[in-house]
Amino acid sequence: VSEVRQVQKVQPVQPVKPVQPVQPVQPVQPVQPVQPVQRWTNGKWKMTRYDNQTGIRGSCAAANAPAARRWPEAIEVCRSPGPRRETPDPTPLGRGPIEPAAFHLTHSAFTLIELLVVIAIVSLLATLSLAAFAHAKSQARSTECASQFRQFQIGYACYSADNNLRLPVNTAAPDQHGIWRSTREAWCGPSNATLPEDDLNLREGSLFPYVAALRIYHCPADSRRISGLGRNFTATLAPRSVSLNGSLNGRTNGLQRVIRLMTEASQPSQTFTFVDEAADSIDDGHFLVIQPPHTGTSSNEPATRHNGRTTLAFLDGHVALTALTGHPALIVTLAKP
Is 315:325 a contact under the CB 8 Å cutoff? Predict the structure, then answer.
């Protein structure tokens, strides 16, 4: 019996890979010398050191020790010089001082022309602002004065309603010294607006229980000051700036038509009650308006403290700021009950 042997398949021989050539050794880069950086700080030159290899912060490298000893101001070693200007060392490190490089510090400042232009613009803006503030302040005072007159008119109507439609007394007469005062039973008491103690007289008026705030009797735009023994010679604001139409239950002197009752007024919306009186005209609380055909006697003058206008309250309850300057017939017309 012949023995059959199976011949195994021989694997092919793998080709030998070529040997990679040995890479040449890269030469060692020499250590770069420390480049000094010059900075102008606090009026003197300061040297800043930077080590490209070690990046030491806060101390010098060993190679830089001679430089640190020679230049004590080289105290900072930064990792990155940043935007600062670098100047090469003109001498070998540690063999001599570093000469300052050509470094010019530019100063930005205003020129004389620019400064004058800025001052002119600021002055112009300040002038415009002051004018706007003054106008706003004047408008606020006018509004406050109109509000006070409205309170006067409400108190006036309440007094008339409580007294069978009879109007408050508005008579006046000279006292023993020849000073014109309202009578004691008048709406403002024995008042004379030129006296410093007039606030005490206002409390005796028949209208004070209805208008009990003394500040309402004074116009916010009235800067008139008076002084006397009653105030220890200290000048104070005048207590009263408002007067009442003499045709409304005033004194019968033949110069004006007088009514006693609210129902006797023919045109309540055209008849004023309270008026803001001028500083050189006001005395008692009776505002006299001479009516035709009488002539030769001067009337009291309305104030023009609100941009040439006068605050008026009317019998029907409304309040208005009216320009009366240059219109003498208008005040006569508005005074007729």
Answer: no
Max Cα separation, the chain? 179
CA-based R_g, the chain, Å: 50
pTM for the predicted model, two decimal places: 0.61
Q: At residue 141, what is the residue type?
A: R
Which segments of 82-223 does DSSP mark as H helices, in order? 112-162, 198-202
227: tokens are 């002084």
Long-range contacts of 180-186 (CB under 8 A, 24+ apart): 180/283, 180/284, 181/283, 181/284, 182/284, 182/285, 182/286, 186/285, 186/286
Q: Is the peptide bond before 293 cis (omega within 30 degrees of 0)?
A: yes
User: Tokens 């208005």 identify what position?
Assistant: 320
The rounded Cα 164 to chain-centroid distance in angstroms is: 50
How many Cβ atoms from other residues are within 10 Å of residue 45's Cβ?
13
State both tokens at 321: 């700021």
pLDDT digits (tens, 9 = 90+) for 122-145: 999 988 888 888 888 888 999 999
Residue 314, both tokens: 């009317």
Strands, E, within the chain: which ranges?
Answer: 37-41, 44-49, 76-77, 172-174, 180-182, 225-226, 236-237, 242-245, 272-276, 286-287, 310-314, 319-322
First to last CA, the chain: 165
